[in-house]
Write a structure and sequence with these properties.
The protein has one domain (30-327): Glycosyl hydrolase domain, family 43 (Tachylectin-2, Chain A), CATH 2.115.10.20. It is 1% helix and 41% strand. The strands form 6 sheets. Strands 18, 19, 20, 21 and 22 form a 5-stranded antiparallel beta sheet that branches. The chain has one helix at residues 146-149; strands at residues 30-32, 44-47, 53-56, 65-69, 76-80, 95-104, 107-115, 124-130, 138-145, 158-162, 165-170, 176-180, 195-198, 203-210, 213-220, 232-238, 259-262, 268-272, 278-279, 285-293, 301-311, 314-316, 325-327. It has 331 residues and is an all-beta fold. The protein contains 1 helix and 23 strands.
C-alpha cells in the first residue's frame, strides 16, 4: 500500500481542541514558499527506504519530472520517469498529468493521466512500474479510457488499499468515482463496477485517514489561468471509504458541498491539487500543492509547502492561505 497513508486511531478530541494538544517543539528553522520556484504542478510524494522523499509532477518538464529531498524543503531534480522513447503512447498527442506514486508489492507503481485539453472522451489513466523510485519506469499501458469507462475527463487518479482490496479513485469535473483494481494493481478487476463518490465541481482527489475518519481532499475552480485562476483545496469527511463525504453541516460532496482548506491570497493564486499528507519526525503533518506566485514573472505553477493542523476533527492550515515564510518540518 502507499507508504504515506498514515492510519492512526486515537481518542475522540473535545470540541475546540487541536488533535495534538501538546505539539512537539518546532525545528527552529524556517523555509520560504515556494519551495521550488519553477513549474511542478499536481505533486505526488513518497518516502523511500533510503530516507529520501521522492516527488513527481505533471509534465512541464517533459516525461514526468522526479525530485528528491530529505526535509520537504530542499529539492533536487533527479531525472524523469520516462524518456521520449519510453513515454506512454495510448493518447499520442496527450500530455502526462497528475501522477500518483505508490509502493505496491515490492515495486514502485506510478499511475498517470494522459490527456490533452478538450478531448474529454480520449483521455485516460495508465500505469507504469519501476524497481527504484527514480526509475526507469516501464509503462504497462492504459487502465481505461474515458469513453470506455463512461466518465468524461477520466484523469487525476488516486490509489488506496482498504481491507486487502486495491482501489482507484479518479475524476475531473464530471464526478469523482472509485473502482476496484486487480491484486497487482495493474488492471481493473474483472467484476468491478464504478461507484459515484463526489459531485461535478471537483478534481485532484486524495483520501487520508485520520482518527477514524476518511478525508476526501479535492480541488475546485480554475486551475490553469495564471493569476486569474480560482483553484482552491477543499475537503469532506466520512466514516466510510466510499462515503457519503460531508461538510461540517452534514451536506454531501455528492451535491458539491465541502470545507475550504487552502485558498489564495494577494501573492499566491490558484492553490490546489495537493499531494499526500506527510508526517515529519516530530509528528507534524505537511502537505504540498501548487500555486501561481505573483512575484514569478514566468507565471508557472510552483511547489508550495504548508503544515496541516487538525482542529475540531478537520484539517486546516494557519490562516487558511499560504505563508511566504514559516517554521520548517523537523527531520
Amino acid at each position: 500500500m502507499n507508504l504515506l497513508l498514515l492510519f492512526s486511531l486515537t481518542a475522540i478530541i473535545p470540541a475546540g481542541a487541536i488533535d495534538n494538544p501538546q505539539p512537539p517543539e518546532p525545528s527552529g528553522k524556517t523555509y520560504r514558499n515556494p519551495v521550488v520556484n519553477y513549474s511542478l504542478p499536481d505533486p505526488t510524494i513518497i518516502r523511500a527506504d533510503n530516507g529520501y522523499f521522492y516527488l513527481y509532477a505533471t509534465e512541464d518538464i517533459r516525461n514526468t519530472p522526479i525530485h528528491r529531498s530529505t526535509n520537504l524543503v530542499d529539492w533536487e531534480f533527479v531525472g524523469t520517469a520516462f524518456t521520449d522513447a519510453t513515454r506512454p503512447t495510448f493518447e499520442p498527442k496527450g500530455g502526462l498529468w497528475a501522477p500518483d506514486i505508490n509502493y505496491i508489492d515490492g515495486r514502485y507503481v506510478l499511475y498517470y493521466s494522459m490527456s490533452r485539453w478538450g478531448c474529454l472522451g480520449l483521455c485516460g489513466i495508465g500505469v507504469a512500474v519501476a524497481d527504484r523510485p527514480e526509475g526507469p519506469f516501464t509503462d504497462r499501458g492504459a487502465l481505461f479510457i474515458s469513453k470506455d469507462i463512461g466518465v468524461d475527463n477520466s484523469i487525476d487518479q488516486f490509489y488506496i488499499e482498504e481491507n486487502g482490496t486495491k482501489y482507484l479513485f479518479w475524476g475531473s469535473f464530471y464526478g469523482i468515482y472509485a473502482i476496484a483494481l486487480s491484486d497487482d494493481g495493474l488492471h481493473i478487476r474483472n467484476d468491478a463496477e464504478k461507484q459515484h463518490i463526489a459531485g461535478n465541481i471537483y478534481e485532484g482527489t486524495y483520501i487520508h485517514k485520520h482518527n477514524g475518519y476518511y478525508y476526501l481532499f479535492a480541488s475546485t475552480g480554475t486551475c490553469c489561468e495564471g493569476i486569474t485562476s480560482t483553484y482552491i483545496t477543499v475537503v469532506g469527511r466520512s466514516d466510510n471509504l466510499f462515503g457519503p463525504y460531508l461538510n461540517r453541516q452534514g451536506q454531501p460532496m455528492l451535491d458539491n458541498h465541502h470545507e475550504v482548506v487552502i485558498r489564495g491570497n494577494e501573492r499566491f493564486i490558484g492553490t490546489g491539487h495537493n499531494s499526500e499528507i506527510v508526517q515529519d519526525a516530530a509528528g507534524n503533518d505537511w502537505i504540498l500543492f501548487h500555486s501561481y506566485d505573483k512575484t514569478n514573472e514566468k507565471g508557472r505553477r510552483t511547489l508550495m509547502l504548508e503544515r496541516i493542523y487538525w482542529r475540531d476533527g478537520w484539517p486546516e492550515i494557519d490562516g487558511g492561505t499560504p505563508s511566504p515564510e514559516a517554521t520548517a518540518p523537523v527531520f
